[in-house]
Amino acid sequence: MKILIIAALQQEAKPIITELDLIETTPFDDVLPMRIFTNNSNPQITLVISGADLQHHVENVGTQAAAISALMAIKTFNPDLVINIGTAGGFKEKGAEIGDVYIATQAFYHHRRIPLPKYKAYGMGGYLCDTMPEITDKLNVKKGILSTGDSLDAQPCDLEIMKKHNAVIKDMEGASIVWVANLYKKPVLVMKSVTDFVDYPEENFQDFIKNLNLASHNLKDQVLQILSLLK
Ligand code: ADE
Question: Is this structure's pTM higher than 0.70?
Fold first, then answer.
């Protein structure tokens, strides 16, 4: 069994890399910034992070790098399962707490507003993504609807769309990874841990930094749980 784990930030993936003794391996090519870590055991794990932006010297986040990571990794490694892990903002009013781990049941976008016939629904995505309930029902996670967008903050029109879709968590990659996994008919899970509250945005950025390690640690615990359930 081959499992592909996709994360944006190195720090989100670090506890998994350490715990599973993953070793960095040859990148996709000389151009793409993505970094690849792997092991040689069974199940075989390949973990891809987005790598650094050439111009701005920060790690790539958001849907464009995520889609390339997913495309290249699925084509290169032909995994049996794709798991997108990462951090998310949570809606406190819907019960999210800092450090909670969620499995997304459905992934919408909130930044793709296209008011043309049929394109409105296309823009919003709405992909189903709890593809392995026999596994995810046994995890110590919550489940809820995810909304993906390319901004860390949320403007009033984003909030309106997220509310309409009943989103409980908000990230910057999930829906685009599900879209690519669906193209290749790969089972996909999106697992996100909450670092800050979308509905209490005053301290978003400080909360994100403060809670990143806790969230990443909690994600690692659930990834290990998935691996043991798949044995
Ligand atoms: N990752 C962590 N917090 C987030 C937020 N508020 N929005 C999008 N992605 C996030």
Answer: yes
